[in-house]
């Protein structure tokens, strides 16, 4: 998303990214229902009229915030998965798990709004499902690329396996956050779980 500057009534100039950062912080702290445009404006050091003119109403601002987080996460996924098709299984598991746990650690507010928004009262479930579906599709593609180099051919089971991996990553990540755990240690647990799942699959019994 481009970040074109705008000018507040006080003459200060604001980047769109700065305004969205302020909005993300307010939505994360207060939840969607309780958050007010005035709170976002105050956090950003601007005015409500400037915010309305620049980003729109509260619902539009929230959608812009979540869309930006989704774009960042998709970019991290694409960058990571681009290098994965020729890797060993243990490295593939690392590549598959790393973007989500990195996102949770480095963009805490964005992770909560994008993946845990129902706990703050937002209604952006469709976008969340779209992101998870996109990650699953990319991981399916990565698994199929690896099959060409190492086998075996999983057939239709590749998509189900990818969905299981994404589900495990999200569950482990959320559990760790809820219990104040170490995300880096949790990532290693998820990696090992996924790696062992691959190794122990009865490929002959999988649907083709």
Given helix and strand content, the structural type is: mainly alpha
> Biggest sheet: strands side by side, in what order?
1-2
Do you know the CATH topology of the largest domain?
Tetracycline Repressor, domain 2
Proportion of residues in β-strands? under 5%
Query: Given the C-alpha coordinates, what overall shape results?
Result: elongated
Number of helices: 9
State the end-to-end distance: 41 Å
Mean pLDDT: 81
- How many strands appear in the DSSP assignment? 2
Which percent range fits the helix content?
A: over 70%
CATH level-two architecture of the largest domain: Orthogonal Bundle
Work out the count of structural domains: 2
Secondary-structure topology with pairs:
Elements: E1 6-7, E2 13-14, H1 16-30, H2 37-44, H3 48-55, H4 58-81, H5 89-106, H6 108-115, H7 125-150, H8 157-178, H9 183-200
Antiparallel strand pairs: 1-2
Protein name: Helix-turn-helix domain-containing protein
InterPro entries: Homeodomain-like_sf (IPR009057), HTH-type_TetR-like_transc_reg (IPR050109), HTH_TetR (IPR001647)
DNA-binding region: 36-55
Protein architecture, described:
By secondary structure, this protein is mainly α. The protein folds into two domains: 6-56, Arc Repressor Mutant, subunit A (Orthogonal Bundle); 65-205, Tetracycline Repressor, domain 2, CATH 1.10.357. Helix content is 71%, strand content 2%. It is built from nine helices and two strands. The chain has helices at residues 16-30, 37-44, 48-55, 58-81, 89-106, 108-115, 125-150, 157-178, 183-200, and strands spanning 6-7, 13-14. Residues 13-73 form the HTH tetR-type domain. Keywords: DNA-binding, Transcription, Transcription regulation.
